[in-house]
């Protein structure tokens, strides 16, 4: 996969759709004024990917911000997700319509299953996503937090394979086995918590590289993701931080530096394990 060289650069998903490699995540942005300001700021800076979910309870804010912006809807890549309690064929179709209504749009660029859940109900959910994709109201479909065994089970009984697997991914959790499997099956990895919720701000390897390149630790980590071919959606409501997160296209990490960052892996999760997480976690 080629590495994006600007905020407007895109990667090509296996179904031919284009998707920006860097976007804005809006998890936990529940203050409407604050969230609207963050989204408007991101769009003015040049972001074109906004990642939300029904769980985040801010789809209506995303929709309003996109409507109010000077950027046309066609230029903005909007992602949302179906939550665990809405899984199943009919429930998913209803949840999608509700999300579309809140987003004030007649199509979605990417729709994802938020978690695999404790059984194989995601297969029925996926059938609903395939229908939406075939009808054209979704341009691409994918999953979140799927382990290799979930992906194998899903693809064994589906017509479409996911274009994206959005998972927790950062230098403390590099997910090499999962990344390899997804790469072999042309599924793009998208990282949530890409900078490990700032827990690596004082990590010696990263602070050294930050000083060397004249960048922040967050920028070094985001650049590592970029060169790994990962789609990244760092979340911030601060305009300066949103801008800082976008300023990662003017330097490059060597392969040795990339390896040093990958070597920080501890298989340490900040969020729940997909095999243990069911409906009751928020």
UniProtKB/TrEMBL annotation:
GO terms for molecular function: oxidoreductase activity, acting on the CH-OH group of donors, NAD or NADP as acceptor. The record marks 81 as: Lowers pKa of active site Tyr. The active site is at 56 (proton donor). SUPFAM superfamilies: NAD(P)-linked oxidoreductase. It holds the Pfam family Aldo_ket_red. Residues 29-265 form the NADP-dependent oxidoreductase domain. Residues 263-282 are annotated as: Disordered. Residues 265-282 have a biased composition (Basic and acidic residues). Keywords: NADP, Oxidoreductase. Substrate binds at residue 114. InterPro entries: AKR, Aldo/ket_reductase_CS, NAD(P)_OxRdtase_dom_sf, NADP_OxRdtase_dom. Belongs to the aldo/keto reductase family. PANTHER family: 2,5-DIKETO-D-GLUCONIC ACID REDUCTASE, NADP-DEPENDENT OXIDOREDUCTASE DOMAIN-CONTAINING PROTEIN. This is Oxidoreductase of aldo/keto reductase family, subgroup 1.
